[in-house]
């Protein structure tokens, strides 16, 4: 499966699994991939899977390639190719490939020619006179004193400005995040995110006056998916109600009892009904795959490990 990865910006680390044929990208709540960075339009662009490949088309916003060149017409994306939307870097990648490092756009600064050094007449009387500061302290003490004064000035300035800068950044972050003031708005976003991850039918959303709780028994490998989704929603939105994750690992058990276990070259088990199963034998949709010194493993409709 392929996915669309966000490489920088407010949603850095987010990924949209590409299951289907068409996906909208923008800052609108109903977008399949919602980006709330500055400059992103409600319906910025659209990704479509065609017979020719992955096609990205501008709608209300602009698209640039990796070199920063603006693209006005729909164009085909190749796996691993990077493109930008108003400064947000995205890439189309196979979900099994590792994430790349975030690309850094380097703006070339104009080189200002150095002004010719002004020559000072060596006969200037002021140069021959030493200041009181230079006469009192030796050279090394002068350097140390100036360095300490500069360090003290920098420390005081940083201490004075830090609370204001932190408050300003926090206020800007709060203004950028879209609001989900009630359970209806939160449920809409949750259902969309769960549907993208093919988990909507595996969990239950329980609404109350205080918020929404996600319940369900899931396989071990799907729990982290729900946890990352919940964290992303809490980070990307201003929630007016609470969001709780109460999903847990699905407990499974054998549909029959084992009364005897034999390991070694002819490893087998005997069930309560007297049936003997060797490696590769099946019962009730479960296939005996391994018998070791401390556990038995079954595969098939479910993977079950029994300690003994």
UniProtKB/TrEMBL annotation:
Transmembrane segments: none annotated. InterPro entries: SMAD_FHA_dom_sf, YscD_cytoplasmic_dom, YscD_ppl_3rd. Residues 186-247 form the YscD-like Bon-like domain. Gene3D superfamilies: 2.60.200.20. It holds the Pfam family Yop-YscD_ppl_3rd. Residues 5-94 form the YscD cytoplasmic domain. CDD domains: FHA. It comes from Paramixta manurensis. This is Type III secretion protein D.
